[in-house]
Amino acid sequence: MAEEKNSPKSGNGAAQAEQSDRPDFSIQKVFIKDLSFEAPESPEVFMREWKGETNIQLNTNARPIDEAAGAFEVELGLTVTTESDGKTAYLVEIKQAGVFILRNFAEDQRNHLLGAYCPNVLFPFARETVADLVLKGGFPQLLLQPVNFESLYAQHLQEQKQQAGGEQAEPTQQA
């Protein structure tokens, strides 16, 4: 009977083909690819009044690992620099990465997942690591605020459209 269920005559072959065409997303692995903590003014920074001012820079990068399998690496880079009295109290750099499987998505959907959804999955891991390092470095607790990766991705798409429009407009203006 098991053979009948799997045979094309039973109709299940069509169901299996239909399932294999469905969009498939999964998280395979989340890991720290690179990590750095520096406190260049220690221990003197602990002797002064704390007036921390924090600057955060972030970037994302996605690359195919095995396109046939639908495997992509997404990397979220965070640089957190905190100054006190105009001197760098600490600097944290992290590259939080993940391996994601994306199958049967249209290109725009795949790009959206890689550019917005996957970084959103990675951010809490990076935020926790940064908070732990800062605290273990002897500094006041740092809680990074959530990031709206959807908005950042939309802004990125808009910038790409403007650049593409500007590049197309230049040759017609010169002609």
TrEMBL record:
Which Pfam families does the record match to this protein? SecB (PF02556)
Provide GO CC annotations from the record: cytoplasm
Work out whether the entry's keyword set contains Nucleus. no
The cellular location(s) given in this protein's UniProt record come to:
Cytoplasm
**Signal peptide (residue range):** none
Q: Name one GO biological process term.
A: protein tetramerization
Chief localization = cytoplasm
Q: Does the keyword Protein transport apply?
A: yes
GO MF annotation terms: unfolded protein binding
Disordered as annotated region, ranges: 1-24
- Superkingdom field: Bacteria
Keywords of the record: Chaperone, Cytoplasm, Protein transport, Translocation, Transport
Summary of subunit composition and partner proteins: Homotetramer, a dimer of dimers. One homotetramer interacts with 1 SecA dimer.
What does this protein do, in the record's words?
A: One of the proteins required for the normal export of preproteins out of the cell cytoplasm. It is a molecular chaperone that binds to a subset of precursor proteins, maintaining them in a translocation-competent state. It also specifically binds to its receptor SecA.
- Please report which protein family the annotation says this sequence is part of: Belongs to the SecB family.
HAMAP family recorded for this chain?
SecB
Record NCBIfam families? PRK05751.1-4, secB
Listed name of the protein:
Protein-export protein SecB
Q: Which organism is it from?
A: Thioalkalivibrio versutus
